């Protein structure tokens, strides 16, 4: 399968280039030239397959033989063997008709592991074949860094530098990155917010000399393979609830829009999804955009769901591209305008196409705390604050009773013990890994929110 840039001004590339390159050279995001379509029979057959097998089928449709099917199957098996739950992404009933999809059983206790465990193994596989070495720089609002460090540490031919906004992530999130002792890992605390970290990353990628000198690569949710990997649990959850014979709706706690866009892609690939609700915290650029048609950056305000403290939802560009009928020129004008002026107006037809499937919801801090408290009080268990944003938002929905609703649960409550304790008075049981990390020494370098400082740092790491 070939991939095009959402901005229409970069050459088409294959699966491996789309995976390793991250952003396209014209500043756009890679998107497949056509979406694979699964038949009703194929989807029905997923119900009897393991999670890893479904993953291999779906990734195989994008990799299209570029990764040998047997190698891909074994990579998927290994990636999902790291999960602590045998079902990988189990459903848990919350109420009649409402299920929680637990995506946090991976090594760093967050849903980012689902894609990252697969991506790291795919990287290692293709790099071993080509003899290349890469440097990954990733910006994290909390969970990406931990999942990426956990997935890439110790892997051959790859270095990883994780940037995080100092003071804006939880201690457990930080320790998943800073306690790695592997020599291919560096962790940078940036004096700025997550959008500043993301802006540094974009600047690095725009500098062609730097990109080539250090063989730069990105594993942020702009990486298409992460989207493909995240489509998988929409399929496994939906077939467990009766798809393809029945429609299913999803509520997705949303930041950079990678997760919710994967749901949109799953629908495009033939899965009968009725509605996808993208739930944001008070950093609600997406909820506002879908409601008003104006996608406009605001100031980031810290919340108890820090992985969603984002005012630029990178993957929204993918949705815009698709909803505009894959109009690369139009997408380029819209997003170059947004990059410069911080706002864009979605043409009414494009917005209508988006809203066929997607709606934006918002939960503020009080709603989020209340959702955690209610779930605990009613015996539905402890949920983390990101999941609580989705729960709070879904509480406001009035849905026809027959379509099952799946609420994506994106982090283990023990990853955010302070917020959980404050809302519920309860202490989340700690998986053993959290206790072990608390005892390990941390390694952190501090840096200004300045792209040239980060470039110099990465150059030095690569030269060492
Ligand atoms: C990253 C993350 C999200 C947001 O996912 P996006 O793909 O960025 O929308 C939600 N919850 C948790 C716990 C996360 O780590």
Describe this structure in words.
The protein has 464 residues and is of the alpha/beta class. 47% of the residues lie in helices and 16% in strands. The protein has 20 helices and 15 strands. The strands form four sheets. It has a six-stranded mixed β-sheet with strand order 3-4-14-9-10-13, sandwiched between helices. A five-stranded parallel β-sheet has the order 8-5-6-7-15, sandwiched between helices. The chain has a two-stranded antiparallel ribbon with strand order 1-2. Strand 5 (134-139), helix 6 (143-152) and strand 6 (158-165) form a beta-alpha-beta unit. The radius of gyration is 20 Å and the shape is globular. Pyridoxal-5'-phosphate binds next to helix 11. Residues 110-112, 142-143, 221, 253-260, 307-308, 386, 410-411 line the site of pyridoxal-5'-phosphate (PLP).
């Amino acid at each position: 399968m070939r991939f095009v840039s959402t901005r229409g001004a970069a050459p088409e590339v294959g699966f491996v280039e789309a995976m390793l390159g991250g952003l396209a050279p014209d500043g756009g995001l890679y998107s497949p030239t056509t979406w694979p379509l699964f038949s009703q029979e194929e989807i029905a057959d997923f119900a009897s397959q393991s999670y890893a097998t479904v993953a291999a089928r779906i990734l195989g449709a994008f990799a299209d033989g570029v990764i040998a099917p047997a190698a891909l199957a074994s990579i998927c098996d290994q990636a999902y063997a790291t999960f602590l739950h045998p079902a990988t992404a189990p459903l848990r009933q919350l109420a009649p008709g409402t299920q929680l999809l637990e995506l946090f059983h991976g090594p760093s206790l967050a849903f980012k592991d689902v894609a990252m465990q697969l991506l790291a193994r795919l990287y290692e596989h293709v790099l071993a074949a080509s003899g290349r070495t890469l440097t990954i720089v990733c910006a994290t609002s909390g969970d990406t860094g931990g999942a990426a460090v956990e997935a890439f540490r110790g892997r051959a031919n790859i270095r990883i530098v994780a940037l995080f906004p100092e003071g804006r992530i939880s201690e457990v999130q930080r320790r998943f990155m800073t306690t790695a002792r592997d020599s291919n890992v560096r962790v940078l605390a940036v004096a700025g917010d997550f959008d500043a970290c993301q802006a540094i990353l974009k600047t690095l990628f725009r500098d062609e000399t730097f990109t080539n000198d250090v063989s730069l690569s990105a594993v942020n949710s702009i990486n298409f393979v992460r989207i493909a990997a995240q489509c998988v649990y929409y399929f496994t959850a939906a077939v467990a609830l009766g798809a393809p014979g029945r429609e299913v709706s999803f509520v997705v706690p949303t930041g950079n829009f990678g997760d919710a866009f994967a749901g949109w892609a799953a629908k495009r690939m033939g899965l009968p999804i009725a509605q996808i609700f993208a739930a944001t915290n008070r950093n609600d650029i997406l909820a506002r955009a879908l409601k008003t048609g104006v996608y406009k950056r605001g100031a980031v305000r810290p919340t108890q769901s820090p992985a969603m403290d984002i005012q630029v939802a990178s993957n929204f560009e993918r949705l815009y591209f698709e909803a505009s009928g894959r109009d690369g020129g139009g997408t380029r004008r819209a997003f170059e305008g947004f990059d410069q002026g911080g706002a864009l107006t979605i043409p009414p037809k494009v917005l209508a196409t988006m809203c066929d499937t997607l709606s934006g919801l918002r939960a503020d801090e009080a709603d989020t705390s209340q959702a955690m408290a209610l779930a605990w009080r009613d015996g539905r268990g402890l949920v983390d604050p990101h999941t609580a944003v989705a729960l709070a938002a879904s509480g406001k929905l009035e849905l026809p009773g027959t379509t099952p609703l799946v609420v994506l649960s994106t982090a283990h409550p023990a990853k955010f013990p302070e917020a959980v304790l404050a809302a519920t008075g309860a202490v989340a049981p700690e998986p053993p890994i959290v206790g072990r990390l608390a005892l390990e020494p941390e390694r952190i370098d501090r840096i200004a929110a300045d792209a040239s400082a980060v470039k110099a740092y990465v150059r030095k790491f690569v030269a060492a």
